[in-house]
Amino acid sequence: MHHAWLLAGKQGVGKRHFAEEAAADLVRSGGGGDSDGLTNVASHPDIHILTHLPKDDKENAKREKGEPYERKRNIPVGQIRAMQQRLNTRPTMGSRRAIIIDPADDMEAGASNALLKSLEEPPEGTFFLLVAHRPAQLLPTIRSRCRLLRFPTLADAEMQRVLADHAPEAGADARSAAISAAAGSPGAALDFLTLNLGKVDAAIRRILAEGDDDFSRRGDLSREIGGRPSRKRIQAVLDLACGALARAAPDAAGSNRIAMIDAHDALVRLSGEVSTYNYDAGLLAMEIGTLLANAAPHRDRAHG
Predict the structure, then answer these.
(1) Within a domain: 272
(2) What is the sign of the dihedral through the CA atoms of 243, 166, 226 and 63?
(3) Which of the chain's ends, N or C, has fewer CB atoms near its CB within 10 Å?
(4) Which residue windows are transmembrane per the record (predicted)?
(5) How many domains does the chain fold into?
(6) Does pTM top 0.85 for this prediction?
(7) Is residue 201 part of a domain?
(8) 29 and 114 share one domain
């Protein structure tokens, strides 16, 4: 089996869950415990999961109490080097160990360069599982050393079954809106419901359909997003806006379609930046609204 795998696909389609199941099977097949010993993958000594750490000591205290906590924006080089120190020793329980990095596309530049050395000269019995929502952001040299496994989105009928199982309390209208907004990602659909994004989605659709000559709809969008939204909520709003443009663009024509494509590209760039920079929530909402208004049909370009 190849030593490094890139698990690529839209956020919320199950890549992390697959990575944990695969890691459990890998270490178990190498003598690293039976199924009963792998009920908690995160605690297994030969499965190392690198993801966003708490932002600071205060947020770490929240994590230890089991409370929601704010995370760092990136995976720094220190986490990669700490993992590499572990690779200098043999696996604890068997002959194999697994490294999960989620999301690998959030590694800092130094972390990516450090990881490359391990991918070039992997220790015997070590397998890397890199979860990536935006694989193009990874170094080409990292991508070239990984086997690619793509995760497809789900059809609407499959999405209905997922929401029926995991969000049975949601009404039919809410589920339909979540499925439309999520574009095949069950995780995004569940976030839509749990983050109560129905009114945000409606505000986005109104701007894109009707424009916003007097800035009133941008104000509505800002109010629905909230004054102090979590990073997860901001990312979900950006995903909603990108999805709305992606659905509308194929039916648009001429300059309107070009404007939608340009707005989508700008939102994708903005989505990548919010994980690195601190944006004022109100200004961010206005920027999203302006990009949508610029793409609305038969409208003069909006001014932000």
Answers:
(1) yes
(2) negative
(3) N
(4) none
(5) 2
(6) no
(7) yes
(8) yes
Q: What is the pLDDT of residue 254?
A: 87
Place of tokens 């694989």: 135
Residue 34 and residue 134 share a domain: yes
> Contact at 8 Å (CB) between 146 and 119?
yes
CATH number for the domain that contains residue 106? 3.40.50.300
Angle at 281 between CA 63 and CA 10, to 5 degrees: 65
Residue type present at position 198: G
Q: What is the pLDDT of residues 31-71, one digit of tens each?
A: 876 645 455 787 889 999 999 998 889 988 988 888 777 78
Considering the domain boundaries, does residue 157 fall inside one?
Answer: no
Q: How far is 96 from 32, CA to CA, in rounded Å?
A: 7
Q: What is the pLDDT of residue 70?
A: 79
Quote the CA–CA distance of 103 and 78 in Å, as a whole number. Answer: 16
- pLDDT single digits (tens) 89-134: 999 988 999 999 999 999 999 999 999 999 998 899 999 999 999 8
Q: Residue type for 71, please?
A: R
- Alpha-carbon torsion, ordered 191, 197, 200, 202, to 10 deg: 110
Structural domain span for residue 135? 4-151
